Amino acid sequence: MVTRPSLQLRGVGVRYGAAAASRLALADVTTPVFSGGEVVAVIGPNGAGKSTLFRRVAGLLGGPGEVLVTSHSGRPPCYLPQDTAAAAVLTVYEAVLLARKQGGRGGWRVDDADLALIDGVLGDLGIAELAFRNLAELSGGQRQLVSIAQVLVREPEILLMDEPTSALDLHRQIEVLALVRRLASARGLCVLVALHDLNHALRVADQVMVLADGRLVAAGPPRDVITPSLLEEVYGVRARVEPGGPGSVPYLVVEGSARDAAARPDASVAYLRAAE
Amino acid sequence: MAGAAVTAGALPTGERVSGRAAYRALARRKKLVLAGLLAALVASILVDLMTGAARYGVAEVMRALLSPESVPAALRVVIWEIRLPVALMAVVVGASLAVAGAQMQTILNNPLASPFTLGISAAASFGAALALVLGLSIIPIAIDYMVPLNAFLAAAGAALLIHALSQRRGVSTETVVLLGIALVFTFNALLSLLQFVASEQALGAVVFWTMGSLTKATWHKLAITSAVFAVCLPLFLRRVWVLTALRLGEDKAASFGINVRRLRLETMLLVSLLAAVPVSFVGTIGFVGLVGPHIARMLIGEDQRFFLPASALAGATLLSAASVVSKSLIPGLTFPISIVTALVGVPFFFALILSNNRRWRSW
Predict the structure, then answer these.
(1) Size of interface A-B (CB pairs under 8 A)
(2) What is the pTM of this model?
(3) Which of A60, A114, A119 to mutate to test the interface with B (most CBs of B within 10 A)?
(4) How does pLDDT run across A164-215, given as a tens digit for each residue?
(5) Element (H, E) at B47
(6) ipTM exceeding 0.95?
(7) Staple B289 to which of B13, B42, B97, B194, CB 3.0 to 4.6 Å?
(8) Does A120 touch chain B (CB under 8 A)?
């Protein structure tokens, strides 16, 4: 029986700054056990601590609490950081091969199995035609797809993706998340994915974690967690969740900013007038 | 991609195989480039051996190299005792400086990094002058090794200072280069101070330092320099994948599980050794450490499995060619090689920067 990967956080926190002036960027995050096959969307406003959480789980930051990981290979979770440009003089293919060869896998030798895997992943992501372009020539969205290829060729069991679709067009967003969904189901991956688009979270996630001010404010199935009252409380947004038709997923309709509506009903219009 | 299977087989087989085949072809092309560089280096070494006060033909040089007993004693002595140590010193020093420059550019993520531009060579010169002028040794040791050891310790100190400063929060790559320039000025001023107080004899020795020259190369110095290169290169070769990954950015490298801080520190220590030892024997030679890696990068990219040997070969060939030029400008006179590397290197460098090369511009 193959071990199913699983991930659980118990009282996890991260402290930034020197001891005296330190503040908790993340405090006391305790989650249920997430297991292979599950896609967990991590949502929350800017600065809520999503990236900090990912870095902590990936082992790049220390702090109180425990990150409990089980995996068949015994390897730590595979982390896809938020996208940054790189000036390396490498082709896409070389950059993806480089990711594959990390951790002393096979020394200098590049065997056909490595290359077949890379061809497969580039094909799945629809970027096979970019394979021999230089990294510096890519658009932001193309670069993001290459970064996703770089984590997939490492054959992760637990995958942490920090806003993997932020630079992609709508079509690519849907395709990449569908691929992640299929990978989770078909290969038993446990995926934590930070998302800003809550409709994506409603569509692909089995579980949702909501972070605000470095704390976990809600966790559970998306339909139970993403509610009008939570959206108003966490994001300050007035919205309703439409149930969707039979066999389809619910979706979110945003009606406006709850804060502006309460405080300054016409603020943005007044600003525009002033700008004229 | 819609409806594509997760595993291989979603695309037509032809397309699947083409990525693999194209990669193999790319790797073959890179090996050919390496072979070409090696051939250029061998040719340059031969020409270097042929060139000098007395000119010899290829056949004579080959005979002197392959069967020394069969050639006249004069030819044998000139080739084996005078020209070969110098020619090979050019190769090893060029390779060492270029590899040091390549790895400094890698870990500092800065195209302007090199032992010369960041003040490491200047520090080495100062360390050497300290021994030459004042007889001061940073740690007590036999007089023969005092000069190189001082040079190394000063260079290592400068390298670690650069490293420490580059690790501080909010220090950009531009700042690191500015700090390097500040170090160059500082050590040059200190060197001038030493020259000012130096005796006539010591002054001559110090001037030799500031104008690097291969003419005092001996088999013994060559052996030490080669040994350092032979120790450092495999340590870099073992880290080719992680060093290449560093060029994808610190975050990405860390996400691959690489301990970026430790990798940088270890690399910086090796780099200071690689940069300081040649400088301690032949004096300050600029531009090879800067231009060598850039030529390699343009020819072959930054996959360190190819980039590292290509940098070494490019640096070695550059300095070997410079050695030929230094002997050819005025017959019977050998110019200090650092003058040649600067005079030939700078226009070449301008041409590189201004050439319409996308790979180059990606920096």
Answers:
(1) 136
(2) 0.87
(3) A119
(4) 999 899 999 999 999 999 999 998 999 999 999 999 999 999 999 999 999 9
(5) helix B13-50
(6) no
(7) B97
(8) yes
